[in-house]
Amino acid sequence: MTKKQRREAAARRRREHQQGREQRPGRRPLLLPPRDERCVSCTTFNILAPIYKRMDSENCRESQYRAYWFSRNEKIIDRLLADCSSIICLQEVWLGNDELVDMYEKRLGDANYSLFKLARTNNRGDGLLTAVHKNYFHVLNYRELLFNDFGDRVAQLLHVESAMPFCQNRSSSCVQQQSLIVNTHLLFPHDHSLSIVRLKQVYKILQYIEAYQEEHKLGPMPIILCGDWNGSKRGQVYKFLRSQGFVSSYDTAHQYSDSEEDAHKWVSHRNHRGNICGVDFIWLLNPNKSRKPLKTSWNEAVFGIIKYLLLQVASLSEENAFALLKADSPDDHISYSSFCQALCQLGMVHPDRLNSEEIKDLWSEADHDGDGVVDYKEFQRCIWSPTCCSQEEEEDTEIDISDGSLVTFEANDEAFGFTVKEAVLFPPEVEKGMWPENYSLSDHAPLTVVFSPVRMPCSPRTPRTP
Description:
With 466 residues, the chain is of the alpha+beta class.
């Protein structure tokens, strides 16, 4: 079969699939019209492992009733197959149950997906599953990241290449776009001090991506981070990723800002405490986005957490917070020892949280003039009013896909990225900030985003963080 015949066959399959979707009542179309063959889609969904799903009794779990968990997971797979995303990133898959794993492997495998599973460490029972549709992507490499920290969290990294070359027209050269995809599930913040653990998990992911790109001498390419981030737009993880140039695909599609007002426009989770919040994200970083050094963003985010603990949790004013940090120092400044003591009081010093080297880095940042102490002005600049962590949205510059390749790139050259064409949460009520009582697939809403490839100029890459 020629390339042209393969493209025509793919277009025919998409037309048939779209027609079938439109005939089902109550379904909202997720994919763009099938004639736009360049589009790809991604779904992230925490499917709520049966070992965690509470039944009527607090001590009773769905895992004790095969008929319940089997039926619910069949419905989840039905929905995933109906949406037919190019990439599916699932969290809380009950990998400890062979029958459930076989169900996903068989049905998604029969639908032409390649599956990658990764269990959480220390036999927690659940884990991640990423499925890549062979019609859309070839998997060039797969890596597993074990955080080995509190909560036994993990992440998957997939280096993929488009199965279908992107061509602007018949006379132009065609290019197979490469991307990096991450699937993860961050720690739930059972108490405020665990915010630093979640931030550290994201930091490890970005460090790992940098190391992978350097190891394989990769040119600029889009990076997509999917998963349950267990934190909303108001948290430091969100601000940290924004400072690194990532955009929330759902917010981009709906033109929502980082403002407090827009933080409540949508939700994706009702947690075990009964609270509803937006915690499921598909983050996109394009090659044209400028990025701060990773260590700079990390320091800013940690200082943001310190301020939150001082202000919101300890209910301290600016002056009282400074007094806590300087402890018993007779002079009007913070010493290194009193700084460490205050971090201990805030629950931030632990091998899984901040270690001695990281505390020294924070201290070096706070001690701006290097005189060995932090005075009130330095406290205000670095801790109480740290540099803004978010970065302004930039317009993606679309360039015709015509010629060139992705072999080598220098600063100011061109690469391929993605524009966000559509983003949908299900059920529709969550897009209005409400949680429907009759929704039973999970305690999370699946998020699906449609991307379209575009050519764009590259921003110079920042040096790798050691």
